[in-house]
Design brief:
The chain has 438 residues and is of the alpha/beta class. It contains 16 helices and 14 strands.
Length: 438
């Protein structure tokens, strides 16, 4: 059965093409800074938004039109696998990501649920062998079921913690079985609504305990993938414990986990935290913690996680600038944790949305590469901080300066700061590169 018969394999046709089902900028074989675009970008499709999203919202019922409508249970799960691999092939992506509950239905007991997972994972492995598509990362859904109303690892109920641990165990076994290159923890309900009934210290300690258990079990079974944590400031709880990159890095360092984890940075989560996407990527990168990216964008006019497909070329360019400075994403990639708008309900819309996201990051890659080659920002930054390369500035950087030596240096010296940062010049340069780079 063909699930998308109206769509042929998506090809690169260049920026003059008027074909909505063609890439304008993403040419997977084009070499950029010594690697193909496909190698630099490592695009992944998110199973949940693409194949399970019903289109419902607080004001309306499910409205997505999908070829697998009408099936239920394991039959539905199997049809989604078939559709997914047809989609991956036609879109030309190498990776996908999933939660455990995306791919198989939850049953009355964990034992039955795990049996469902075994059936679908076996099917996925067969398709992976014939398609060459890989798992970028997998994770566990410990936020949808009502048992997680008060959290998973941070639940006040020890039985819920035990269930969460068992769910992570199974998901790690799946990661090993399908060869996941990374493994993500997103603390869906790991946070609080009010401190009046919250033992924050115990909850943070328990969250760390579960992560340590995961590391221990990964070592036991021989899973070598990179562990990732995905920061988010709010939603669904009022305050999530992995608020932003800086908070998450502090947590990892406090609990002795920094050597095992990196961060999976999502653009829309940066917006919710009051940061730019580039800021969260920069904080992660300079701490050696940038591992992967959820490629989407939010709407600055709306105060929630809208998970739109990325189209903002400023964001994609500055994101790729940070990623290239990071030496790439290594075992991570650009996962489209993004959903079509509710009014875009046809199967073809799934292709249109991924095409524009892939083109936006391909364009950002080329512009970022040219900015780095020409040292547009590097030279400006080096000039701005030049005073720290000689004299008293070098003494400060080298640790030779003291409060007394610095007082002696400035006590009779007039000091002022009247040198322009030339922000507008750099923004104009960025515009120029966005418009002119081929």
């Amino acid at each position: 059965m063909a699930y998308f018969p109206e769509v042929s394999k998506i090809r690169y046709e260049g920026n003059k093409s008027t074909n909505a089902l063609a890439f304008k900028y993403y040419n997977p074989e084009e070499i950029v800074l010594g690697k193909t675009m496909a190698e630099q970008l490592r695009f992944a499709v998110s199973y949940w938004h693409t194949f399970t999203l019903p289109g419902s919202d607080p004001f309306g019922l499910a409205n997505m039109i999908r070829p697998w409508d009408g099936y239920t249970g394991l039959d539905l799960a199997k049809k989604r696998v078939e559709a997914a691999f047809e989609f991956f092939d036609k879109l030309g992506v190498q990776y996908f990501c999933f939660h455990d509950r995306d791919i198989a239905p939850e049953a009355d007991t964990l034992r039955e649920t795990n049996r469902n997972l075994d059936v679908i994972v076996s099917m996925i492995k067969d398709y992976m062998k014939t398609s060459g598509v890989k798992v970028l990362w997998n994770t566990q859904n410990m936020f949808s079921n009502p048992r997680f109303a008060h959290g998973a690892a941070t639940s006040p109920d020890a039985d819920v913690f035990a269930f969460s641990a068992a769910q992570v165990k199974k998901s790690l076994e799946i990661a090993l079985e399908v060869g996941s290159e990374s493994y993500v923890f997103w603390g869906g309900r790991e946070g609080y609504e009010t401190l009046l009934n919250t033992d924050m210290k115990l909850e943070l300690d328990n969250q760390a305990r579960l992560l340590h258990m995961a590391c221990d079990y990964a070592d036991e079974i021989g899973f070598k993938g990179q562990f990732l944590i995905e920061p988010k400031p709010k939603e669904p709880t009022k305050h999530q414990y992995d608020f932003d990159a800086a908070t998450t890095i502090s947590f990892l360092q406090t609990y002795g986990l920094a050597d095992r984890f990196k961060l999976n940075i999502e653009a829309n989560h940066a917006t919710l935290a009051g940061h730019t996407f580039q800021h969260e990527l920069r904080v992660s990168r300079i701490h050696g913690m940038l591992g992967s990216v959820d490629a989407n964008q939010g709407d600055p006019l709306l105060g929630w996680d809208t998970d739109e497909f990325p189209t903002n070329l400023y964001d994609t360019t500055l994101a790729m600038y940070e990623i290239l400075l990071n030496g790439g994403l290594h075992s991570g990639g650009l996962n489209f944790d993004a959903k079509v708008r509710r009014a875009s309900m046809t199967p073809e819309d799934l292709f249109y949305s991924h095409i524009v996201g892939m083109d936006s990051f391909a364009r950002g890659l080329k512009v970022a590469a040219k900015l780095l080659e020409d040292r547009v920002f590097e030279d400006a930054i080096a000039e701005r901080y030049q005073s720290y390369t000689t004299g008293i500035g070098k003494d400060i950087v080298d640790g030779k300066a003291t409060l007394a030596s610095l007082e002696e240096y400035v006590i009779d010296k007039p000091v002022s700061m009247a040198k322009s940062g030339r922000q507008e010049v750099l923004l104009a340069k960025l515009n120029q590169y966005l418009l002119e780079v081929e």
